[in-house]
Structures are given as structure tokens and as C-alpha cells.
């Protein structure tokens, strides 16, 4: 379906810059805490459980409320929700910075997650309604995607610089000036948009979606930390049951939160799944990146973050290339090319070993990020273009939720595969003379193996360290092959299912059939 060509003006492009700033901060808050964790742990002295909730409260609430907030923005106005979220994000940032005990910080992180859940779908749905020209919208979505990637990269860098000079709370206070800027410029630059016939807000559906997403993500994270067992499986199963109830309610409720008829379009469903897969491989493999740089090559957190920077900085180049190519060769072809480039990156990564230079890892992952950036920019634009403007918030939330689920699954599944390979390989390669206790400790994680090696006599310790490094790089190689295979399969699916012209221009989704509540 060809949209009316209505070119954006200066106001829209400046407004986009303001929107992207908020995206950068939302993404930064996912990564900046990792570098501040040792400092706040020393200051606040949290228990192990409290430390986990300090780390996870933000991500859980963010993921669980995306669909709710996207739908709420469709009803009350996306700009209104964005500004309310900006105010909440600024206040919660101050609370986090001034936290005097772990409980206060957990509450502040949870509030940041709630506010962050309003920002991501609001910004993307506003872009859908600010840029009516298809090529301009594709460019705007690409800039938006680059903002999220840039935030994830800048978080550890900015956090490291701030922690060199200030206390740990400074990593949260950097949010405040940007949110003030958004509150001042938002009403001037951003048009209000909403669903003209929104219907009633489904409170029960909102509760079901929150419980389902949080339960599944929590179970996945627990399985990544402790392996498959009754507890994580129970959480995932409970989340899936509640999620099934949520989907059933969306079929029968008069005013559904998500329009299930969107999934009748192959273009929408395949693009959404591909978006999740991109997060799966990129976030999942990041588990190995920092350990390789810090433990195998002995870098500090800030140095390893700087080495990782090219991986994220190259994504705008992939996004720009995809935006330029899509009108010429078609969006499905660009998606396939992006996936193919990422496959090439993982193929380059597959031979990595203990003696490989840091440049080998960074160069390979830079190629991966180049392809993923190109792919994500296009599939996000495809998902948005499939949804009618009045459902832009809901569609935006679904893309973000797919990315969140993809990242969580990547950490759990790739982490579990890697852990199994590491333990099996180290058991076979461990030097003679290790006590059963030392071997069990070394098999737990690479960090534990390095610590164990440091406590042993030099010869035995050096042999254990070499064996652990070899086992770890072997798990990296196998995981890289798994990622390459998955991305190759995705490229084939996209090439087959979206190859025809009819798939390129999907019909407008029909209005959902409604029944009595």
C-alpha cells in the first residue's frame, strides 16, 4: 500500500533528535549498572538476593509493561504518555542516585522500568505518525534503532568515566538533564497522536500481560544462572499459561490491547520473529565477549568496554546502508543481506582461540553488528508499516517485547549451551592432581577457574588456567556456529516467505472481530 508522500519538515527532524536522546538513556540504563555494581555494593552492602533485584527490577518491569504502555499511548495520546514517562524517569533517576539502602534502590530501579516502558513504544509510535513518507520513515526508524544501540555501547563508557571522578549515583543523574530537555521541547516539537476510537482500556489484559512476560523472563534468567530445574521451568510454564489466557482474552474482548489480526500478515509475523532472533544472537553472544576480553586477555571493565565500542558504533553504518538499499532492491532482500552479513561475522569468529588477538573478536563481532543493524532497522519499519496509524503504539510495543524476549532467550539458551560445553571440555582437559573440590569450582564458571588457579601451585595453576581458557574458547566456537546456523535458517525463511511482491505490500489488517466481554 503506497502512502501519500508528505515530506517531513525541520520540526519533525529536530523532534526525532529529542526522541532518540530518550532512547539512548533507556538503553544506557540497561548496561550502565553493571560497571557501577561493585561501587554501590560496597556502599549499600546488599544481600545476594537484593543485589539480583537491583540488577533485574528495571528489565523485568520494562519488558512486562511494554505492551500495556504501547496500548495506553494509543488511547490517551503518545506524546502525553511520553512526557509523563520522561517526568517519571527523571524523578526515579534522582531517587536511585540518592538511595541510602538496597530497598530504596530496588524501588527506584522498578520505577525506572515502569517509566522506561512508556518511552520506547511512545517514541516509535510517534515516529510512525510524524513521518508519512515511507523513505523518510525508514530513515527515522534507522536513527531510532541506532539510538538504542548507541545507548547500550555508551553506558559502560560513560559510567566508567563518571565513576573515575564521582560516586556511583552519578550514573543515574545523567538522565535528568535529558529528561528535562524532553519535557521542555516535547510539547513544542512533537505532535499529539492517538487512536480516534480507542475503546475501553483492558485492565485485566494489562495485568495478564505483565504477569506472563515477567514470569517467563524470570524463569529464563533463572535457568541461565542455575540451569534447567523445577523452579525455572515452573516459572516459564506459569508464564506461558497466563500468556495463553492473555491471548484468549485478546480474541474475545471488545477492545483488545493487541490486534491479533496483524499476525495474519506473513510480512508482520516473519519480521517480528526475525527482530527477536537478532536480539537472541547479539545479546546472547555478549555473555562471552566481556569474559573473553577481561579474563582471557586480562582487560579491566572500562578497557573491555572501549574495545567493544566498534561493535555498536558500526551499527549506524549498517542502518544507513539498509535504508538506502531498501527502496532499490526491496526490504526482504535487504533483510536477507543483513542476515547473510551476520552469518559471515560468526563464520569469521568460529576459529577463535586462546591465542587469538582481541582484534579477531572485535572485527568478527563488528561484522555481525553491521548485518544485525541493517536487518533490525528494516524489520522494525516493516512491522510499523503493517499496523494502521491508530495501532502504532501497540505494534511498537510488540517489536520491543520481541527484542526483550529474544535477548533473554539468547542469554539463557546460548548460555546453557556454552556452560555445558565448558564443563564437559574442562573435565576432560583439567590437569592431573586437582582435588575434586578444586575441579568442581573450576567447572562452575571461567571466573571461578581463574580464581581457583590463582590459589594453586604455579605449575598446576598455569595448567588449569590454560585448560579453562581452551574450554571457554571452544564453547565460543560452538556457540558461534549455532548462531550462524540460526541466522542462515532465518535468511532462508525470509527469502522464501517474503520473496513475492505481494508480501512486500501487506494489506491493512482487518478490524478484529469483537464479542461481549
Description of the molecule:
Residues 501-517 have low confidence and may be disordered. Helix 10 runs antiparallel to helix 14 (358-386). The protein is mainly alpha-helical. The chain has 19 helices and no strands.
In short:
This protein is mainly α. The chain has helices at residues 10-44, 48-76, 78-97, 102-130, 134-165, 170-173, 175-189, 203-226, 230-252, 266-296, 301-313, 315-329, 331-349, 358-386, 392-429, 436-444, 446-454, 458-497, 501-504. It is 81% helix and 0% strand.
Characteristics of this structure?
19 helices, mainly alpha, globular, disordered C terminus, 517 residues
Q: What gap, in angstroms, lies between the N and C termini?
A: 33 Å
- Morphology call: globular
Number of strands: 0
Number of helices: 19
Structural class: mainly alpha
SSE run: HHHHHHHHHHHHHHHHHHH
**Proportion of strand residues:** under 5%
If you compute it from the alpha carbons, what radius of gyration comes out, rounded to the nearest whole angstrom?
Answer: 23 Å
Largest beta-sheet details: none
Amino acid at each position: 500500500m503506497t502512502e501519500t508522500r508528505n515530506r517531513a519538515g525541520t520540526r519533525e527532524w529536530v523532534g526525532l533528535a529529542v526522541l532518540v536522546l530518550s532512547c539512548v538513556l533507556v538503553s544506557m540504563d540497561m548496561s550502565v549498572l553493571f560497571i557501577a555494581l561493585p561501587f554501590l555494593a560496597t556502599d549499600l552492602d546488599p544481600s545476594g538476593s537484593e543485589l539480583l533485584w537491583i540488577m533485574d527490577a528495571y528489565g523485568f518491569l520494562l519488558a512486562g509493561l511494554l505492551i500495556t504502555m504501547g496500548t495506553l499511548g494509543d488511547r490517551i495520546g503518545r506524546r502525553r504518555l511520553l512526557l509523563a514517562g520522561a517526568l517519571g524517569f527523571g524523578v526515579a533517576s534522582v531517587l536511585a542516585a540518592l538511595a541510602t539502602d538496597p530497598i530504596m534502590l530496588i524501588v527506584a530501579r522498578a520505577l525506572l522500568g515502569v517509566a522506561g516502558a512508556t518511552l520506547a513504544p511512545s517514541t516509535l509510535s510517534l515516529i510512525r505518525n510524524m513521518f508519512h513518507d515511507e523513505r523518510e520513515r525508514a530513515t527515522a526508524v534507522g536513527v531510532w534503532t541506532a539510538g538504542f544501540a548507541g545507548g547500550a555501547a555508551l553506558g559502560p563508557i560513560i559510567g566508567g568515566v563518571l565513576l573515575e571522578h564521582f560516586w556511583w549515583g552519578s550514573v543515574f543523574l545523567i538522565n535528568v538533564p535529558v529528561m528535562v530537555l524532553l519535557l521542555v521541547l516535547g510539547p513544542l516539537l512533537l505532535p499529539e497522536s492517538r487512536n480516534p476510537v480507542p475503546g475501553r482500556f483492558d485492565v485485566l489484559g494489562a495485568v495478564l500481560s505483565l504477569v506472563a512476560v515477567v514470569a517467563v523472563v524470570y524463569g529464563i534468567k533463572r535457568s541461565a544462572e542455575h540451569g534447567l530445574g523445577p523452579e525455572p521451568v515452573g516459572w516459564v510454564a506459569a508464564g506461558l499459561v497466563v500468556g495463553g489466557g492473555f491471548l484468549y482474552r485478546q480474541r474475545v474482548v471488545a477492545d483488545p490491547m493487541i490486534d491479533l489480526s496483524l499476525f495474519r500478515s506473513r510480512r508482520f509475523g516473519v519480521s517480528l520473529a526475525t527482530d527477536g532472533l537478532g536480539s537472541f544472537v547479539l545479546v546472547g553472544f555478549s555473555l562471552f565477549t566481556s569474559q573473553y576480553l577481561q579474563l582471557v586477555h586480562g582487560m579491566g571493565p572500562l578497557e573491555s568496554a572501549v574495545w567493544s565500542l566498534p561493535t555498536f558504533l558500526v551499527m549506524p553504518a549498517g542502518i544507513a546502508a539498509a535504508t538506502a538499499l531498501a527502496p532499490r532492491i526491496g526490504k526482504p532482500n535487504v533483510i536477507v543481506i543483513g542476515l547473510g552479513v551476520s552469518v559471515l561475522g560468526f563464520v569469521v569468529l568460529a576459529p577463535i582461540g586462546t591465542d587469538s588477538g582481541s582484534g579477531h573478536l572485535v572485527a568478527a563481532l563488528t561484522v555481525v553488528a553491521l548485518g544485525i543493524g541493517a536487518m533490525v532497522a528494516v524489520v522494525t519499519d516493516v512491522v510499523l508499516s503493517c499496523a494502521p496509524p491508530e495501532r502504532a503504539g501497540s505494534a511498537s510495543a510488540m517489536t520491543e517485547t520481541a527484542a526483550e524476549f529474544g535477548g533473554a532467550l539468547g542469554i539463557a539458551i546460548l548460555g546453557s549451551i556454552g556452560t555445558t560445553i565448558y564443563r564437559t571440555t574442562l573435565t576432560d582437559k583439567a590437569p592431573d592432581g586437582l582435588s575434586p573440590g578444586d575441579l568442581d569450582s573450576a567447572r562452575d564458571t571461567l571466573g571461578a577457574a581463574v580464581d581457583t588457579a590463582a590459589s594453586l601451585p604455579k605449575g598446576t595453576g598455569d595448567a588449569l588456567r590454560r585448560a579453562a581458557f581452551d574450554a571457554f574458547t571452544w564453547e565460543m566456537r560452538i556457540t558461534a556456529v549455532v548462531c550462524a546456523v540460526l541466522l542462515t535458517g532465518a535468511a532462508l525463511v525470509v527469502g522464501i516467505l517474503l520473496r513475492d511482491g505481494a508480501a512486500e505490500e501487506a494489506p491493512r489488517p482487518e478490524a478484529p472481530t469483537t464479542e461481549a466481554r
